[in-house]
Design goal:
Layout (H helix, E strand, L loop, with lengths): L19 E5 L3 E5 L5 E6 L5 H18 L5 E2 L3 E6 L4 E4 L29 E5 L6 H11 L12 E5 L14 E5 H10 L7 H19 L7 E6 L6 E6 L15 H9 L12 H12 L6 H21 L1
Length: 314
């Protein structure tokens, strides 16, 4: 039947038209909206309205101040919605040159009507891993008992930890350490960035979050995913609900150091002389503006001392 066939009706369509749950954590659930390049993040409890609103504003600030030419992309926060008050917050994009009209919000309450009645925000979607990479992960990294599981959606980049074989497989966020990334890179040379550039990208975006946006980057995730508009791989940072602001004008990096070590081991461990850490460190310093360079160097010095103390304790 052609698209012009007059007998075609809406009942013939197999595409879903309501949000679909694609993941959840302890704080919120993620819903995708079929046919649109967006996802919703809705809290489990309406009592957490203030936290999800804070995350929306923090993500908007980070996107505005940090999302430029980094190898790690930041999804744009589009709108916040509180169903109890019908409040909608919307930050319009920067105006195009020559625009004569004021940007209007493209969102209304009806846009959120099919979601659970809890506070949420909508943001740009991070696409799943390219099919070729996802299949390679399953065939080369899943244990034999998990060969029937689906391919992973995303890969968490654990460059600060050597992973051990496990019978458990997280198909939503599959862990990828340095050895696994190198294996993927060897077999997908044209699809993945060199691991040294990825380490640099981690240092670059962390420095921008610290010293441009003024947040501690607590609990953010560094993931390997897909490009939404092509079949290519992409690198992103996601999950911003635990980030806290700090005073950049004071030479106190305590909260930054705590956030660095409390986070999952995405970053190379701060061991001077380690190849990936040196690339991370150089990019961190290079991406910091001169006004905060002393704070950046203090942060790096402190995490190196802390790592050395941990190594002696072991």
């Amino acid at each position: 039947m052609s698209l012009s066939d007059n007998s075609f009706s809406g009942s013939d369509s197999l595409e879903a038209t309501v949000p679909v749950r694609i993941g959840a954590g302890s704080f919120a659930t993620i819903y995708a909206l079929p046919g649109r390049a967006v996802v919703f993040k809705a809290v489990h409890l309406q009592d957490h309205l203030a936290q999800i609103k804070h995350e929306y504003e923090a993500l908007h600030n980070i996107y505005t101040l940090c999302n430029s030419d980094s190898i790690f992309a930041i999804p744009r926060a589009l709108a916040f919605f509180d169903p109890t008050t019908q409040e909608i917050l919307f930050h319009p994009p920067p105006p195009h040159q020559g625009r004569l009209r004021q940007a209007r919000s493209p969102f209304n309450a009806a846009f959120f009507a099919d979601l659970p009645p809890r506070a949420c925000y909508v943001m740009e979607r991070v696409a799943p891993l390219p099919r070729s990479i996802a299949q390679l992960i399953r065939s080369s990294m899943y244990p034999p008992t998990a060969s029937g599981l689906p391919t992973p959606l995303l890969g968490r980049l654990y460059f600060g930890k050597e992973l051990r074989p496990s019978a458990f497989v997280n198909t939503n966020n599959f862990p990828i350490d340095v050895a696994r990334y190198r294996l993927l890179q060897d077999q997908s040379t044209d699809e993945l960035s060199p691991i040294e550039e990825v380490a640099e990208g981690m240092g670059e975006i962390l420095s921008r979050i610290h010293w441009d946006a003024g947040y501690d980057a607590r609990d953010v995730e560094f993931v390997l995913a897909g490009d939404l508009f092509s079949g290519a791989a992409g690198l992103y940072i996601i999950d911003f609900n635990q980030m806290q602001s700090f005073n950049k004008s004071h030479d106190d990096v305590t909260s930054l150091v705590e956030a660095f070590f409390s986070n999952d081991p995405y970053y190379p461990r701060p061991i001077p002389g380690d190849q990936l850490y040196e690339r991370f460190k150089q990019a961190y310093v290079r991406s910091c503006n001169l006004d905060h360079l002393s704070g950046a160097n203090l942060f790096l010095c402190t995490i190196e001392k802390h790592q050395a103390t941990k190594a002696v304790a072991l």
